[in-house]
Please model this.
Amino acid sequence: MSQVWSPDQLPASPVIRFRGLTKGLAGSCLRASKKTMKGKTMADIKIYGSPMSRASRVMWCAKECGVPFEHVDTPWDKLKEPSFLAINPNGKVPGFADGELKLFESLAINLYLAKKYSVGNLYPASVEDEGRVFQWTMWAATEVEPLALPSLLVQLGYSKDADGAKAAADKLPPVLKILDDALKGRDWLLGKKFSVADLNVGSVVSLTKYGKIDISYAANVSAWLERCLARPARNPGARE
Ligand SMILES: N[C@@H](CCC(=O)N[C@@H](CS)C(=O)NCC(=O)O)C(=O)O
Model:
């Protein structure tokens, strides 16, 4: 299944935006795909994967950037087929293409999208803040995701190792304290404005919510996560 999204076609309500794509609206999105942005046809960007997978992070980022994209909802049982491996040789979603360029790794794709389409807005203008974006993105991927993901997999029924998931989640408090301290007295990681750092780290930390891990001990993180997840560009049904 494939849908084309363009910024001027997105309905105001985030609920309608994802769930209410009727045939008529899909048709008008396809017509809009004839327009160009930065010299590219609108459907040049393709994001592969279910909105219930990490593809959701990338769709969120593309919407924050205001770039149109085609969403290809790729079934799980097709991921190891040659046609999909040609897009992501890992056989995992998200898959991503921007014209001839193909990328994998959800958080890296988001850095690419933000830097290419949203410098000064989602992507910082200064090299120092860019360093902070790299730092937080790598930190989330390496320090947080391995501790939070097992609980989500148990909740979704993909893993039966509830003890292992709990042991991992029990290691989160000192890690999340680092984020909690960084958010003290500020709404967003780079200061006053939501950025791709918040999007990437928020996507990863949201795994705690859907994995039913209590992080209320980290009050700044909890409040910031709700701010991130309330962004209108985010699909509220997603499980990043
Ligand atoms: N680090 C990768 C992880 C990708 C990943 O594991 N995706 C999952 C879905 S969220 C997947 O495709 N799993 C299928 C499989 O492992 O066969 C990323 O962030 O893009």
In short: The longest strand covers residues 2-5. The two ends are 20 Å apart (CA to CA).
